[in-house]
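ugh ok so i messed up the first submission bc i forgot one of the chains. this is the corrected input, ALL of the components this time, i swear. 790 residues overall. if the numbers dont match what u have on ur side tell me asap before i send this to the collaborators (the ones from the other lab, u know who)
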Amino acid sequence: MDRYLIISSDCHAGLPPERYRDYVDPQYQELFDAALPIQIERTQEAERKFLIADVNAAWRKGREQDLSGAWDSDQRLRVLDADGIVAEVIFPDGITEMNMPPFGAGLSLPTEEIVPELQWAGARAHNRWISEFCQMAPERRAGVAIVPALWDVDEAVRETRWARERGLRSILIPNYWGKHDAYHHPKYDPLWAVCQDLEMVINFHSGAAPMSDYADHQGMMGIYISEVAWWTARPLSFLIWGGVFERFPRLKVAVTEGTSIWVPELLSLLDFRYADTPYSAKLGDYRSHLKRTPSEYFHRNVFLGASCMPRRESEMRYEIGLGNIMWGSDYPHPEGAWPETATQLHETFDGLPDSELTAMLGGNAIDVYGFDRDALTTLADRIGPEKHTFSPTAS
Amino acid sequence: MDRYLIISSDCHAGLPPERYRDYVDPQYQELFDAALPIQIERTQEAERKFLIADVNAAWRKGREQDLSGAWDSDQRLRVLDADGIVAEVIFPDGITEMNMPPFGAGLSLPTEEIVPELQWAGARAHNRWISEFCQMAPERRAGVAIVPALWDVDEAVRETRWARERGLRSILIPNYWGKHDAYHHPKYDPLWAVCQDLEMVINFHSGAAPMSDYADHQGMMGIYISEVAWWTARPLSFLIWGGVFERFPRLKVAVTEGTSIWVPELLSLLDFRYADTPYSAKLGDYRSHLKRTPSEYFHRNVFLGASCMPRRESEMRYEIGLGNIMWGSDYPHPEGAWPETATQLHETFDGLPDSELTAMLGGNAIDVYGFDRDALTTLADRIGPEKHTFSPTAS
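and heres the new structure output, hopefully the right one now
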């Protein structure tokens, strides 16, 4: 094979807000109509507040047709073909703030100022649509079902089963739980069990953080973007120490768009804490239920949606875990690789061994999300980037 | 000088609980009497819960006299002399859980399940005692005043002035603010101003974290000890992005017993976020009020109380900041260097250049906390460890 099979482990899709109406359960449609203008107004208000309306408008100008791939299947296939990407994992929030599911069911799944029942209704509306959307190109699309798992684990289990039946491959659960139970609580075990049984990947995606801490003071956005990766990966510590990967050894968790730079240091820290030291002795027994070291669980059960992965992370690939990294483009978000994907790929990966590129660019994602390798290979032979452009010795 | 001048930037002292009564304002003494048995019972309960009563008892056995240095000035001087330490920064919570100030005014300054007025009363009781305690050996003791700054900034300013008048050199404020305002809120400016004017170091000390997140499930202590350093250093991001070091360029902040391993990665992250990138563009202006990079503020304004610093951190000293590291022994805590201080110092520092050891072991702490170098030099000439034992070439 002369071309790389590239999968983006982090893409986004969503309907224009008003078009979610058809996917909302009938009993919520009246509320949907009332909430829609408020949601749109809030979005515009946030754009003005952060002075980003102009930045967004400038970036989008002339790309309107390409960006409509956020909800238009044919446009999306055209854009991905041109980008050399054969398949993708699809999260909500298409063009960032413009295509969010209704009722606070967007990527960040807030825990405050929302009504759980409505967030669930919004999640189900999106899940119905994304499952249809994925069926339009099933071998190329692994859709992510939104599962606001904090409020009701039974409901989360039901929705996960429903999603699997409709062909979705994974679920998104909140990485920020606010005042709700964290993920070492045994109440979540039925959810981990169904995800393991049905081979549904559990995703945490960058976005949520304790916004009330940041309030509205100078520099708050600097604080947010300096912390947000930590909040994205925070559940890992709860899952590892809580013994979740001990009880559910085949569970797969992906941390997406949370950078990977922190992985070596986190694993070093967790393994150090797992070791027997004078400090640990005075804290009682918090380790005997774990048969493996934290880094062993990590490398077996945790994967990284490495959106727009920078060169530095590719150079750290052995410390991070060559089998754990799944490159992503973040299309159609403005901070993503698209439409400069080719340039970014070369910056990050030029000169690396062929087998390692094969794993990080697509092989790992095939294994994690269960894509059909043969079907995608045929497509990659046509649209994937040529291997020799990354390294003269690669064939 | 043939010996190192060693200052511990992290030691602890506190009275046996019942003896705080004499230092509590009269109007709180009745409540003190009612609360005392509850506090003692809770402490014992925690020991039982975490199965550490036996560990603590075994560690303490035969060391009772040395440990009484937690409140006995003469015993303390004897222990520190034997340890080769000429001076110390003294935080509350002497023998960990056995010498906490009353009313929840201990090291972790909880924000939940306490009455702010009482926490203040407990803090004042400790501050009165520690200021007396430091006056018994003023050149050797930099006492830290407890200032529960979250509830009332005016009161925090008054207590800081009071503490300075009584010879204390720094204040401890909560590193975990719960639902209260974080430190980028402009309401704290009067506190930063008085600390800058009076050269009072602001300390964050490891301990507090969102305990309610950890609840009581399996592995919770593993999660806690894996996160606690992050929670200790978290205020730095709020201070830096909030422009506090821009408005108060002479402010000094110390992060104590929070490890230092995270410093290079944090600074790299903050500086990256400060740089102009496609990602930052869509977030509006959160940078123009900062004239320096985050790492420049850090290296000018932030210092590390490097308790029981491991070899790996000493090898990272240039990336962490040679001028920012202040070694500490954590006496009399069981996880501290004492009574193996000499062994630990050699493990961490053998073979390093003399001038660098001089800075990390005491020189930096002299500058930060304003110790009297001449007085301490005389003492170090008598009790400090001999330089040639660390490196054959050091004189």
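quick check: Chain B touches chain A through 60 residues (CB under 8 Å). that seems consistent at least. Chain B has one domain: 7-389.
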